[in-house]
Amino acid sequence: AELTKKEDPTRLTTQANVMFVPDNDEYNYMTDIIGYNKYYGWYQGEAEDFGPWIDGYHATNPTVPLGISEYGAEGIIEYHTDDAKVKDYTEEYHALYHEKVWKIFSERPFLWSTYVWNMFDFGANIRDEGGVKGRNNKGLITYDRKIKKDAFFMYKANWSEEKVLHITSKRYIDRADDAITLKIYSNCDEVTLYVNGSEVATQKGEDKIFIFENVALQPGLNEVRAVSGDVEDTAFFNKVEEANPSYVLPESEAGGVVDNWFEMPEDLGDVVIEELEITDDVYSTRCTFGELFANPEAKAVVQKYLNGFSEEHPMFGMAEGMQIDMLASMAADMFSEQLMYMLNKDLTKIKKA
C-alpha cells in the first residue's frame, strides 16, 4: 500500500478480503477502500445473512468504504426443484439466491461496488462439486457461453434499459404437479400470462419479479406465454405422472468445495462430549491452520483427524489463514460436534510458546 501511494498518490488503493477476515482486522485499514469476498447463502449461513453483516461492518467501520468483491452460488442448469434450498445446485436456488442478495445490496447505497462471481462458469481443476468435476458453476452463463441462466435475466431486468421479459425454469420441463407456480423477471409495468392460448391473469410485479401461482397444466405438453406490450416470452411444460429423477442431484454426487480438501475420519468411536475450557494460551480450533502447522505437536493433531492434510495440498494456501471453526461453519456436515470436540480436547493440551 505504501509503495503504491509512492508510485501514484492520485489513485485509490483497494484489496479484497476473503470472507473469514474479521471486521476489525488491520487489513481493513491498509487501503483507501475495501472489498470482501462473502458467500453467505452458499458456503456459510443463508443469503439473508448479508444484511446484518453489512450493517454490522458499517457500524464498526463507518469511514471505511465497503464493497462486495465476490458473491455467488452454484447453479447447474440440469437440476431443478419446486423447493429451492442452499446447496441443492439447482437453477432455481441459483436465481433465488441472486434475487435475495441483490435486493439486500440495492437497499444499501453506501456500498461502493458489488461484483457477481461469476459471469461465466469456468474451469477449476481441483473441484469436484455438484456432480461436476473440474468446473465452478457459479456463472450467470454456462461454460460454453451459450446458455444464459435465469439469474442473468434477473439482473438484466434490474439493470438494463431495454425491455426484459423472461419466464424462469424453462429447462424444468417435466412437471408432475397439476398446478405450478410461474416466476417471471421483467422490467415492464405489468405482465399477462396465457396458458395453451387462454388468458390466465395480468399482474404487476415487485422488485422486477412477477409470480403467478396455481397455474393449471393439462396432461401432456403445455404452452405458456407471457406478454407485455410488444415483448413476450414462451415456455413449454410437460405434465407427467411422476417427477423426472434427472432433475435432482444424486446423493452419491453431493458435496461441497471443502469436501475435496480432507479425508475425514470414518469412525471416532464412542465420544463422550464434556465441557472444555479453551483459553488464549493453548491451541484450539479457534486457531488458523497456519498457527497450528507452525507447532509440530498441533500439526500432528490436525493431521491425525484431517487425514494427511499438509502444506503440499493445493488448498493449503487458502486454508492457512482460516480458523478450523470458520472452515467447520462452511461444512457443518463434515465437521461433526464429536470431531470438533476431539480436535479441541487434544489441541488444548498443547501450550502456546
Detailed description of the structure:
By secondary structure, the protein is an alpha/beta fold. The protein has a domain of 87 residues. The protein is built from nine helices and 14 strands. The strands form four sheets. A five-stranded mixed sheet has the order 8-14-13-10-11, with no helix packed on it. A hairpin with a 2-residue loop joins strand 13 and strand 14.
Structure in a nutshell:
By secondary structure, this protein is an alpha/beta fold. The protein contains nine helices and 14 strands. Helix 3 packs parallel to helix 4 (150-159).
Helices and strands in order, then pairings?
Layout: H1 2-7, E1 14-18, E2 33-37, H2 50-60, E3 66-71, H3 91-106, E4 114-116, E5 122-129, E6 132-136, H4 150-159, E7 165-167, E8 174-175, E9 179-186, E10 190-195, E11 198-204, E12 209-216, E13 220-228, E14 231-239, H5 289-293, H6 296-305, H7 316-319, H8 324-330, H9 337-347
Helix pairs in contact: 3-4, 6-9
